[in-house]
Amino acid sequence: CETCSEEEAKYRCPRCMTYSCSLLCVKKHKLARSCNGVRDKTAFVSVNEFTDLNLLSDYRFLEDVGRTADAAARHLAVHGPPTKKLLYCLRNKARKCNIDLRTLPVGFTKRRENSTTFNGMEKKFYWHLKLVFLHCHAEYTLKGVPDDKTLADILKPYIDPVESDPVICQRLKIYTVSSLSDVQILMKIENRKRNSIRYNELDASRSLLDNLKGKVIIEYPTLYVVLKTLKNDMVVLGQDASEPAENSDSESSSLSSMEEGEIRDS
Q1: d(Cα 100, Cα 140) in Å, to the nearest integer?
Q2: What is the Rg, in whole angstroms, of the alpha carbon atoms belonging to the chain?
Q3: Which segments carry the region annotation Disordered (predicted)?
């Protein structure tokens, strides 16, 4: 044993070829030499010492490398950022549904986190969706929400006293104890000046697609869930006495240079 020099060696370290007699000496030699005990698969072996075992080891090593490279390529294809062509197709499909979908340049947070896709076989959007429960200061992100799902069904796991998760139900208690008629779903109107921010009120009984038609969406929809009985500073379009109820398109105004840069297609 090269560690205690007392007992006959029984083991040989695959990494540094040190002889040891027991588990205790194995641990001591690893600590003393900072050895991890894992065989170096890329260590040089001379031709004279090369055996069938070395050949098998090299073959398995190359197989492992191939599997790792293939897994990395698959991960990039599935989870990597969409190409410009895919973004163009996504915007084009949205346009056919009367939705003005706009994407941000690479690097913006909303661009990185957006997971919205379009299923060509089903001819259906699966939206990345953010829910903001204003009165509880809570936010939830949903992925893969089908466009034919009603807003009422989308909100059920959050504010329904029976179907909601107990933890979420407790956090959103102020919503779960309120009647559904008191719940109001709003979405911010894009392309307005900062001093005249307005919101569209959405219909909980209609599908997500129907509610998004005729509206500008930057990356993905963000829905604000509020209670009518509680005060908030959000002005719904058409409910302000100082302005008439108009279509959101006619209310659109030019963006500042910074906002234009944010919604310009990458």
Answers
A1: 24
A2: 30
A3: 240-266
Model-wide pTM > 0.70: no
Q: Under a CB-based contact definition with an 8 Å cutoff, are residues 227 and 174 in contact?
A: yes
- CA dihedral for 113, 176, 226, 210, sign (positive or negative): positive
In tens, the pLDDT along 99-137 reads 999 988 888 888 888 889 998 888 999 999 999 998 888
**Which residue, 189, 115, 107, is CA-closest to 145?**
115
Look up tokens 């083991």; give the residue: 11
Q: Which of these ranges, 8-22, 182-196, 202-216, has the smallest mean pLDDT?
A: 182-196
Give whole-number Cα distances, 138 to 79, 175, 197, 251, in Å. 27, 12, 21, 29
Give the mean pLDDT of the chain.
Answer: 82
Measured CA to CA, the distance from residue 31 to residue 33 in angstroms comes to 6
User: Which structural domains are found in the chain, ordered by start?
Assistant: 11-74 (no CATH), 83-227 (3.10.20.90)
CB-based contacts of 159, cutoff 8 Å, min separation 6:
172, 175, 176, 183, 225
Place of tokens 């509610």: 211
Tell me the one-letter amino acid at 61.
F
